[in-house]
Amino acid sequence: MKTKKELEALRLEKTTQMQTLIEERSSSMDEETLATVKTLKDEVGQIDMKIEGIEAVRAVAVRTSKPAEHQAKDVQKEFRGAFVGYLRGEMNNAELEKRIMQAGTAGKGLETVPDEFYRTLLNKILEYGMIFADANKITTANHGDLLIPMADDTGNAGAWTAEGGTITPADFVTSQVTMKAYKCTTAIVVSTELLEDAFFDVESYVASSLGIRLARTFENAFINGDGTGKPKGILAGAVNVPTAVLAVCDQDDMRNLVYALSPALRIGGVFYVSDAQRKAMDAWVDTTGRLLLQTQASATHATAVEATLYGYPVRINHELGDPATPADNPAIFGNPQNYWIRNIRNITVKRSDELYALTDEVLFTATTRLDGKIVNANPAFSKSTVAG
User: Fold this and answer.
1) How many structural domains is the chain composed of?
2) CA 78, CA 148: separation in Å to the nearest integer?
3) Three-point CA angle 343, 346, 348, nearest 5°
4) Which has the closest alpha carbon to 378: 219, 226, 225, 173?
5) Which of 3, 18, 125, 374 is geometrically suited to a Cys-Cys bond with 40, CB 3.0 to 4.6 A?
6) 338 and 379 in contact (C-beta within 8 Å)?
7) What CATH number is associated with residue 201?
8) Which of 224, 255, 231, 213 is nearest to 319 (CA)?
9) Where are the alpha helices (DSSP H) in the chain?
10) Residues 245, 383: one domain?
11) Distances (CA, A) of 127 to 42, 114, 123, 234, 317
12) Are residues 383 and 265 in the same domain?
């Protein structure tokens, strides 16, 4: 069997013979010469196949000899390259799935969008959605109703019983929360010129735009949703704590939010406040003039925990209301792990070239299915409602 170097030399020889024949007989090419050129061309093609085979074997050997982390990076790079090709229209959905299944495991091959791209979307959602980031998230394989049983035994206690007396049983109260699968969608139209521009970062643009849109939709439902066609938000199930003063939510009102819940449910509690409420809180001081908000030494805007109030983290949520507007809800308090988010599947991104063909644009859609509800037999959140 010839080596790659020998095959390359033979290919050069055959190619030179073919080119010489074409140049010498270009004006008087007979059938015999045409047959010879065709034979040389076929031989060059067979040599190319052998060279490609040798290179493929070497590539596999190099890949398998790499450390596991290097192999993982190679797979991620192939995922990213395949998906960018899909976004730019260089391959269709079937080709994308084939590439992904060849590059990764069978489980990853089942997803239309590779994990690398999904993480980009998820990062944007975590960046813009506080409740989504903090809540208790579960993922189910099917889309049917998910029944979560609960028991409330807080109304029962033991009893002092005389010798030989009868023990009286007391049943505890049971209930259940039903979590459904609501579909959340968004879409973006991108011009063909942008997709064909090699300097345009199409992956980041599409992932960022779709991720932010979904995040805004999620967060609004997790706070304000009524449970009809969308998740049921925290405000719908929170204990109402009216403010003591008209059009103001002060430090006493915030303290009342804490004590509206039982001691056990205050553990892990977080204050979520609107941006306007957070601004007002910056000026709160105690009787000695010290700021009530305690800034953490390691606090950064990136972690969204800049300060604490009464020992509980304070985080901004843009779906909450204005403290100067009557009936608005500028603040809530509770342990976010008592809010459950059910995911049915990962976010799916699809490309369509037909709908906007006349305007030479491409449509990208993102869909997912989820639900959100407070899951606790006892009141788990409290909300401040501005008096007015």
Assistant:
1) 2
2) 41
3) 130
4) 173
5) 18
6) no
7) 3.30.2400.10
8) 224
9) 4-24, 31-65, 68-87, 93-103, 106-109, 115-128, 130-134, 192-196, 202-224, 234-237, 251-259, 263-266, 275-281
10) yes
11) 57, 20, 6, 20, 11
12) yes
pTM of the entire structure? 0.66
Do residues 305 and 311 make contact, with C-beta atoms less than 8 angstroms apart? Answer: no
Put residue 323 in one of left, alpha, beta given phi > 0 → left and psi -120 to 50 → alpha: alpha
Q: Amino acid identity, residue 229?
A: G
Residue for token pair 């449509």: 363
Residue 106 burial (CB count, 10 A): 7
* 3 state DSSP class of 55: helix
Identify the domain containing residue 183 by its residue range: 121-151+173-230+343-374
Per-residue pLDDT 10s for the chain (388 aa) are: 677 788 888 888 888 887 787 777 766 767 777 778 788 888 888 888 777 777 666 655 444 444 545 544 554 555 455 555 555 555 555 554 444 444 334 333 333 445 556 666 777 777 676 898 899 998 887 778 888 877 777 777 888 888 888 888 877 667 788 899 999 999 999 888 877 775 667 777 787 888 888 888 999 999 999 999 999 999 999 999 999 999 999 999 999 999 999 999 999 999 999 999 999 999 999 889 898 998 766 655 555 557 899 999 999 999 999 999 999 999 999 999 999 999 887 778 888 888 888 998 888 898 989 999 999 988 999 999 999 8
Query: What is the CB neighbour count within 10 angstroms for residue 90?
Result: 14
Residue 337, helix vs strand vs coil = helix
